[in-house]
Structure formats: structure tokens, C-alpha cells
Design a protein that fits this description.
By secondary structure, this protein is α+β, with helices and mostly antiparallel strands. The chain has one domain (about 1-135): Alpha-Beta Plaits (2-Layer Sandwich), CATH 3.30.70. Helices cover about 40% and strands about 20% of the residues. A four-stranded antiparallel sheet has the order 2-3-1-4. The protein starts with a strand and ends in a 5-residue tail after the last helix. The model has no long low-confidence stretch (mean pLDDT about 95).
Length: about 140
């Protein structure tokens, strides 16, 4: 089934020069990148993006981090895109991520783990509508 997903290279990944490598991995996997945007995310948008974590103690740090520098956002589609991308990213905790995954190759800590990807078709639709409203 063709799905759409939102992917974001976080500020640590952008600063490390990983945007092109990650884009290339996604394309080599056979997924279609249908939109790309590089921005410094507005705080209000970041708070909406991470709204499900609003009551958690790390919410403020998460928003501070994601707005601390440029992010590289992608709208991606393809057969089983969400599972394919989540597999490519590896577990949220990079220390548990196997080599060959994006987090396993490029990250060391949960708070700055290089990449975000939608975890379900519903979150993909919500995140894409927030960051790429022209695709809705």
C-alpha cells in the first residue's frame, strides 16, 4: 500500500552535514521524495508538532532543540513507506540502533538522535499537513 510519511533531519543532523546522505538513503531504498524544505522551525509550529509530548518533562528541551537551528524536512511516499523509514532510522535510542541504520551510524543520544519520522499513517498525515500543507 502506498503511504506518505514526514521525515525531518534534526538540527544535529543538519549541522553534521547528513541531510544529503539521509536523502540519498531514502531514494536508494526506492521511496519517492515528493517535497523538501529546509527551515528554522517556528516555536509555535514545533510545539504543535510535538504536542503529544506537551505534558512530559522533556517537552521544553525537545522544542528548544528542534528550534535551535535548521531542519531538513521531507515528504516521502511509497509502498510501506512508514515501516521502511522507521526501519532505516533505527530505534529512538541510538545506543540500541544497529549499525547500518541512520541512528546507529550517526547518533549517540536520545535527545539528539539526528532524525524524526512519522510513526503511523495518522501521524504522517498530521505532520505533513502541518509542514507541507500544499500537499493536502
Amino acid at each position: 500500500m502506498t503511504e506518505r510519511s514526514f521525515v525531518m533531519v534534526k538540527p544535529d543532523g543538519v549541522y553534521a552535514g547528513l541531510s544529503g546522505e539521509i536523502l540519498s538513503r531514502i531514494e536508494r531504498r526506492g521511496l519517492n521524495v515528493i517535497a523538501v524544505r529546509k527551515i528554522i522551525m517556528d516555536r509555535a509550529v514545533a510545539e504543535e508538532h510535538y504536542g503529544e509530548h506537551r505534558e512530559r518533562p522533556f517537552f521544553g528541551e525537545l522544542v528548544d532543540f528542534i528550534t535551535s537551528g535548521p531542519v531538513f524536512m521531507l515528504a516521502v511516499e511509497g509502498e510501506g513507506a512508514i515501516v521502511a523509514l522507521r526501519t532505516m532510522m533505527g530505534p529512538t535510542n541510538p545506543l540500541e540502533a544497529p549499525p547500518g541504520t541512520i541512528r546507529g551510524d550517526f547518533a549517540l543520544e536520545v535527545g539528539q538522535n539526528v532524525i524524526h519520522g512519522s510513526d503511523s499513517p495518522e501521524s504522517g498525515a498530521r505532520e505533513l499537513a502541518l509542514h507541507f500543507p500544499e500537499l493536502s
